[in-house]
Amino acid sequence: MNLSSTDLGLAARVQNLTKTYGHGQSTVRALDDVSVGIRRGEFTAIMGPSGSGKSTIMHIMAGLDAATSGRAWIGDTDITGLSDLELTILRRRRVGFVFQAFNLVPTLDALANILLPFDLDGRRPSALERGRIDGLIEALGLGSRLRHRPHELSGGQQQRVAIARALATAPDLVFADEPTGNLDSRSGREVLGLLAKASRDQGQSIAMVTHDPIAASHADRVIFLADGRVVADKPRQSPEQIAAYMLASELGAPTSIGDDAAAVLA
Description:
- This protein has helices at residues 54-61, 84-94, 110-114, 116-120, 127-139, 155-167, 185-202, 213-216, 239-250, 259-265, and strands at residues 10-21, 28-39, 43-47, 69-74, 77-78, 95-99, 173-177, 205-209, 221-226, 229-235.
- By secondary structure, it is α/β, with parallel strands linked by helices.
- The strands form two sheets. It has a six-stranded mixed sheet with strand order 6-7-8-3-9-10, with helices on both faces. A four-stranded antiparallel sheet has the order 2-1-4-5, with helices on one face.
- The two termini are 35 Å apart.
């Protein structure tokens, strides 16, 4: 029997996913037969060294890139064969994004940036949606900054605007790509706390790509990639446990799921 993503309690998943770049002897295998899912209502960190495939898997899960082989789902929707237009509509309505570079529209003020997903979808927020947006603005401390454009905001404020935009439509799934990479430590902690709260209080599924052990320690679950494969999948870890595992991986210690990896992560 084939179980759906809903049956499995997953907001997104990939199955036997492979991604290669180039041809012949210059072929690079970014992902190598990966099968993994993002659980509903959970904050998941995806970690790995540079070149491990962590950003590639997020981009394919989000429908921003296509796999060489294998399948990907958002909820129960198999996105593998969808057209660009179908993917665009699906992302707009069911997925939120938070990027390291904030990706705010410089000519729009903070409120217009937050409401951008609705404008792109050709509609205005309903009364219920507007109430949720007002709650987000209050929770994120943006009430006095709504008429400011991005260049008038600090990095932390810009990222809070980006989080409000990502959560405004109450998407099933939020992808965050190094969301604290351009922030100071205090702003970074605030942003991570906000993402964790969205998962905990609103039941939203958060998938965050990061190389930072401190950032990953805020997640409920940590998935480690190396050389295009999932090498460990663990519940919440301390920054020290994560850093120890990453160091062991880089030094060539065993990194496959099993006793050796479990010992490092214990």
